[in-house]
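pls design
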């Protein structure tokens, strides 16, 4: 399957990963999947796509699981109206995806901003999720402490990206995405990976996601 985003980037390929579209009420959601067995749903972090899970999916498949990595609304190769993004819309999309796949219960792994969606899903529809793992986010029951203040200096980019006009412009320019991908990754990404991601990942939806996904 060959497909291209609206900004002209061809989808990277990973051996063994299948690509298909799930029909939702208002459009198509791109889904990458691999393996067979008990399903594990993978929700990528802010401004990322299914590609985030390219190394984990083969490992899950080898362990006997069905790894399912959708591009949620506003991400990657999905064809869903971005203006419809709201505080709960992505969670609603995930439930619609599970219903389309006739999956009554799945395991859930989430990263970064999509942990908000994961919290909504597991708290709102706990019967649909057997287990949950969240990466790089604090649990919702954590209480604020002054000890956390020094660590907040690492979150400056969230405020910058949330500024209408400025956030999308910085992402489209390419320099900020490459900096974030190199400084927030365990190991630097290859140029052929980071370069094509910069103009597409989150450029159109970053202010909407940051404003709407955590509360309007």
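designed seq:
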């Amino acid at each position: 399957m060959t497909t291209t985003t609206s900004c002209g980037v061809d989808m990277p390929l990973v051996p063994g990963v299948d690509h298909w579209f799930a029909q939702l009420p208002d459009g198509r959601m791109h889904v990458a999947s691999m393996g067979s067995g008990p399903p594990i749903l993978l929700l990528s972090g802010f401004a990322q796509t299914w590609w985030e899970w390219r190394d984990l999916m083969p490992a899950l498949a080898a362990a006997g699981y069905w790894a399912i990595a959708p591009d949620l609304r506003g991400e990657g190769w999905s064809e869903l109206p971005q203006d419809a993004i709201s505080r709960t819309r992505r969670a609603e999309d995930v439930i619609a995806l599970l219903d389309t796949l006739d999956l009554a219960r799945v395991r859930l792994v989430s990263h970064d901003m999509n942990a908000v969606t994961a919290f909504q899903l597991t708290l709102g529809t706990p019967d649909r999720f057997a287990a949950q793992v969240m990466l790089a986010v604090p649990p919702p029951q954590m209480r604020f402490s002054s000890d956390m203040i020094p660590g907040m200096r690492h979150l400056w980019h969230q405020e910058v990206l949330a500024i209408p006009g400025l956030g999308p412009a910085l992402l489209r320019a390419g320099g900020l995405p490459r900096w974030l991908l190199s400084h927030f990754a365990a190991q630097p990404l290859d140029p052929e990976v980071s370069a094509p991601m910069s103009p597409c990942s989150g450029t159109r939806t970053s202010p909407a996601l940051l404003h709407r996904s955590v509360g309007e």
